[in-house]
Amino acid sequence: MPSYAIGVDVGGTSIKAAVVSRDGRLVQLWRVPTPQGPDAVNEAIVALVRQVHAEVASGVVSDEPPVGEGGTVLPEDVAVPVGVDIPSVIDPRDGVARYSTNIGWRNTPLREILESQLERRVFVDHDNRTGAYAEMRWGTAEPTSIYLAVGTGISAIFLFHGEAVVADPWAGEVGQMSIPDPDGGPGNVLMERAASAAGMVARFQRLRPGVLPFRAGAKELHELVEDGDEVATEVWESGIRILAAEIARLTYFVGPIPVIVGGGLAQAGSAFFTPLGKALDELSLEKIPLRAASLGSHSQVLGAAARAFDLADA
């Protein structure tokens, strides 16, 4: 069995590739800017994978594990298949990118395109599903659990006996649910515009323009909460209540299984998890095990590599 695999994480601003060891260590990381347009992105993925293989072949990629002897990563040590995660509605069974706002894919046979260009098998899936899979394999998730990604958007992945349940390519897009505007506006808003990290920051900026810098995130918003800003506190607490209600709904449907939360809001630590746990306790009949994701911003590329291992081992 190969000791290493290549994972690719396609994001809105950058594309990352990594050589990952079988025990989940990120051995080396490459990063290039994400170009404009779906065809250009396809070409960039292919070029980056070829670059990684070329550098492995030239003997410049080395592994230095924390325990034991390291050495040069040899081409024969690397799995032939490649794993790719993308920010798109996709069915991993056919590899067709149905819809991506960031990249522009529309019913694009991405797996077929990449396999034709790279002349190797490719696994393609939604970025948050690969993140959930990595957390299950090397992090805090269990084979049967819920992974909630709360960053720019909100998505929920139901892991059942080690696999994400995907009845339809749109599975998990809970952030697209319509809910009453928590700030009292007319009509409804998308959940992710009210309770994601980006959504809560945008809400505060609408209510108190000019207080936060343009590119502020959850960290800056919570600093205002700690400083006693009443508007920031209401936005923060109402967003957490919305997330707690969604977690409660999910666990009432599948049972009180562990819930792992990753993404930008999870980086706030106890300032996020303590009120989330309290709100969840008030809504649930049984105690829901609530955990922080442990793999950070590299979870998606690690999960993509894990899927490459799966293809190689099959």
TrEMBL record:
State the protein's name: ROK family protein
Q: Which organism is it from?
A: Actinobaculum massiliense ACS-171-V-Col2
Q: Which family does it belong to?
A: Belongs to the ROK (NagC/XylR) family.
Which Pfam families does the UniProt entry name for this protein?
Answer: ROK
